Amino acid sequence: MQAPSGLILSRDRHLPQARAADLCLPSPSVSTEDTNTTVLDLFGKHSHLATLPVVENQRPIGMIKRHVFLSEMAKPFHREVYDRKSCVAFMDREPVIVNATTTIEDTALAIVESGGKALTDGFLIADDGKFVGVGSGLDLMRMVANLQAEKNRQIMQSIGYASVIQRAMLRTSHEALFATLSDVGLVWQPRDVIGGDFYHFAPYPDGWFLALADCTGHGVPGAFMTLISSSWLSRTLERLGPRDPAQVLAELNRSVKASLGQTESRNDLGASDDGLDAVAMWFDRARSTLVFASARTPLHVLSPEESAVRTIEGDRKGLGYVDTPMTHAWSNRELALDAGTIVCAITDGMVDQIGGAKHIAFGKRRVRDAMLRARTLPMGEFAASMIDAHADYQAGHSRRDDLTLFCFRA
């Protein structure tokens, strides 16, 4: 119920535990029949009062601010003129009035919408329209800060546990990778606690399969996409096997598009348009060949006898996005790997990182230069050297994206 004047904010919905009633402090009040002499006496008896509510028929209609009232009454002849007049002469007729059941968040919104005057003057609290007490702006801000701190703590606890789940999801691949390959390096660095990059490795009697993927976003949205994409990848491998990477990407594209409803005919612009860039590779152990298919994720190859790194670009279509056709076909490429050849796949968190004296992206040229400098190192140290070069270049700039690096020596 709305009072004759002032601002009342209340919403008919489930209310959390913290409410305006938790801020309610008992307070003396006056009615429209009380004179300014009564107000002066009350301010004198209650030195802590910043405001004095004015109530009519138990309903708050205004408030008298101590500093305004005392300033007015101190003016020449004002005592003689106003002493016996109604206290409404110096009443604020538009106080902030909040229902006792209003959430703390909505109470704070009411204060902001009032222009912030209630932060210093306080506000009135009513229950079913009847005056029950006053609220302090300072107490409100303190409670909002405490609630926000608690929410942040709970969110960070949830994200921290989500990180445990995400790392557990990658652990099987991580352990299998290092148990299978003798000279290999792997770095997985989410920009935040959790991230949108993932990898999948699986050994087979005649070779091994690896996929490296960069999903849309980072943090929580990116992590959701990794769960969706890695789940579909596992199912695809169970059904199709690992030896045709292009077919694996095509099936993963169809699965992601279908699960997110991201078809080319969709016209609801507010819906999702998420997907992933990825490279999938199959290494044939008997022939020492690498068959790979790529969606916007290049491979960097450095042969022992060559003085330059070859960068083999991927297909320009990502997986799962609205504008990627459901029937899009990626192509397989085959590399015969001489002994000692280094193959490196990196998500774009490295090449897109801003840094250096000119504040520009790290770029592929610096990737190649870093590979050449580290070419004689074991792959674990090779990967660490690449990451160190990237970190030195980033320097004081903030991290832009997740970063995953996979490298092996044939």
Verbal overview:
With 410 residues, this protein is of the alpha+beta class. The protein has 2 domains: 7-135, Roll (CBS-domain); 165-409, PPM-type phosphatase domain (Phosphatase 2c, domain 1, 4-Layer Sandwich). 36% of the residues lie in helices and 24% in strands. It has 10 helices and 18 strands. It has helices at 36-45, 66-73, 78-82, 104-113, 117-121, 137-180, 219-240, 245-260, 363-374, 379-394, and strands spanning 7-9, 51-56, 59-65, 96-99, 123-127, 130-135, 184-189, 197-204, 207-215, 276-284, 289-295, 299-302, 310-312, 333-336, 342-346, 354-355, 360-361, 403-409. A 5-stranded antiparallel β-sheet has the order 7-18-15-12-13, sandwiched between helices. It has a 5-stranded antiparallel β-sheet with strand order 8-9-10-11-14. A hairpin with a 4-residue loop joins strand 16 (354-355) and strand 17. The longest helix is centred in the middle third of the chain and has 44 residues, at 137-180.
